[in-house]
Specification:
By secondary structure, this protein is an all-alpha fold. Helices cover 50% and strands 0% of the residues. Pfam families: Cyclin_N.
Amino acid sequence: MAASYWDSTQRRFWEFSKEQLAALRQRKLDEERSLVQMYPLPEWRHLSLYFSQQLNRLAKRMQVRQQALATAQIYLKRFFCKVEIRRTNPYLVMATALYLACKTEECPQHIRQVVQEAKVLWPDTHCLEISRLGETEFWMISELSSQLIIHAPYRTLQMLQAELNLTPDELTQAWSVVNDHYMTDLPLLYPPHVIAVTSIVWVLVLQPAMPGGTNSSGGGIGLMGQTMGTPAGGGNSVGNNSNSQGAMGMGMGGGPSSLPPPPMLLSLSSLGPGSSTPGGTPGTPIMGGIGTPTTLGGFPGFSARSAMALHAQAQAAQSNQMQHMSQGGQAAPGTYNNAQGSNTNAGGHSGTPTEEAPPADNSRTATMQWLIRWLAESGLDMEATIDCTQEMISFYMASEEYNEKLTREQINRFVKARGLDR
């Protein structure tokens, strides 16, 4: 495999511009014009959210690692870039993606267990048989051109935690933003280090000041409305390849937060780094509870108007960053790969963009000023970071219009009408 993201098939073959991705999907629609007209489907964002929900629920039943779940979500996106969704049974494809991802991330699940759990979760899908899943696995590998290694943002996020002096709450929140980005097209558009930095900017810049200090329990409310755990602070070591990211545990502890959750924290899962299974085996993450979204952000009062306010706040903060860069912020020699170091061999030592340490007093103003300087000196593509932030805000706004029942009915309609459930 490619230990470095820069040499990986992910970078060379599976990152597109927005125009390229739109053209690829439109070409598939044009090739299947009659099916598209006969079986209309919701917009892609709603389909992606539905698929993510279903994969989360299946992964929870099987106690699959977060890294494997993230890989499965990317496999699904890539597969549907090559194959028109109406030509498939999406439930069989989702089960296959998770089964294959568990193999790739070295936490394999027995095919019999995958089929059994999928049947319980989707009882109306009669084609969930071992032989059919095996056939679909070979089909998926073929459509993905056997390019199965995925580099995720989690490792970068953990490396930057120490450098940026992130608190456990901030790391948990940034982790949640990374989880949520798999419901968007961002994994097909930008490198994982850009996503990781975006999640940090999201937490440190866009997060409104919360009265009363930090969250004592470390919990936040996700998109599904459940409590998020706090990173337990356990030192999970980073391995020499991307699969080692799966060893980062998922926090399950803590009671409900005593403070209202920050509006931007809309996580699909109660996952956070650094815990262990109930049985006590360190570094073996498990899945959090998955519910059904009711209000955006999992709590009352966060609406499209709130998202619009966040959008304006993001534009203002990012304008300040760009202004600082235009006033002479130059990248220090050898610092460009610092934010990207998670995708190289873990044995290397990353340099720091600036000799100045993060403010120790956790002053919001001082932290934001320091972060802006750090970004200006890091050599990171700020336009990409800005675009990622705006895409996440846009996705959260669109999520308010999501109707799971309607999406499920439209998918089931073409599956049954075309006999894909047999």
